[in-house]
Design a protein that fits this description.
The protein is an alpha/beta fold. The chain has 2 domains: 114 residues, Aspartate Aminotransferase, domain 1, CATH 3.90.1150; 247 residues, Aspartate Aminotransferase, domain 2 (3-Layer(aba) Sandwich). The chain contains 12 helices and 14 strands. The structure holds glyoxylic acid. Glyoxylic acid binds next to loops. The site of glyoxylic acid has 6 residues, from loops. Pfam families: Aminotran_5 (PF00266).
Amino acid sequence: MAVIPVPERLLHPMEFPRKLLMGPGPANAPPRVLAAGALPLLGHLHPEFVQIMDDCKSGIQYAFQTENPVTLAISGTGHAAMEAACCNLVEAGDVVLVLCAGIWGHRFADMVDRHDGVVKKLNKPAGETFSLSDIEQGLRAHNPKLLFVTHGESSSTTLQSLEGIGKLCHKFGCLVVVDSVAALGGVPLLQDAWELDVVYTGGQKVLSCPPGASPISFGPAAMKKVKSRKTKIRSFYLDINELANYWGCDGQPRRYHHTGPISNIYTLREALSILAEETLAKCWERHAKCAALLHDGLRQLGLELFVKNPECRLPTVTGIVVPPGVDWKKVADNAMAKYRVEISGGLGATAGKIWRVGLLGYNAEPENVKSVLSALKEGITLQKKSHL
Ligand code: GLV
């Protein structure tokens, strides 16, 4: 048997460049959040840690504007929260109507298929969103048990209006799941007032935490569906009954289910404190102002926004049309190499066609908007002069 030698690189410190993360996430985390992540570990059922989990729960209820008792953070990234919504609510044969205006709908549809649900898709081209009448037609045509909608479609940089969707779905006996990974905190979302049965987000976007703990909330109708399932939930790790117990949401003594990501929960607690100090209304306003500043600056550079309808533009992730003859990647590479500023390309249908600039949480500040604008201007000018 070969002896595996000590990996040489592990004997040296990590190389660690500081970067300004102005893509669609992760965003940079504030020093307070990073410091929280460096605190000593506690046990995952120690009373002090349980108190931190309870603080997170009330912070998530505030961020989502919900009184749902089953509100917690999934141990995993936003994808794990998406899987949790799917595996708890979908049983074999259930019809699920998925609104697809970018990659996230298709991803949820893939998960539904893995749970033997019956996927029906409503599609829109990248850059457009769904009207209530589009959704009503889909509900009438397919009679689904569940509807999936992406609030902030980061791949096509659209903001889907959610108002009225919950009420409409409930009229048709259908539950609604909202992916607000890229939007929550940057634009209004009122889970209870808008009758949204399940909402989830990620930690690494507006909340500006390290990825790894993802807030989610199940409303009473969603829990009723979970409790009346005919078949066992096909994931132990993401079983909402088990998670609700671990998070103290079911009034029962907490049992060991899994070991929570302790340091991630500390950082989430700190990020939720920062949001509480700023308040939701001010956080929404800061994102709107920074997005307006970015949009103005882009117009001055002669650049075009990808989403034509101003009401459908996602303030947290802006799509910018790459002008003819410009290589988006060379511009992004120049920004990274010279200024350590991350500017992303498109994703899915928008790949190669747009740049995506994130204004997420801690990074949604006017000086960061200026850095992005000057990096874009320099990259495009250099390329036009064929220097790149
Ligand atoms: C990830 O969320 C992305 O939009 O690239």
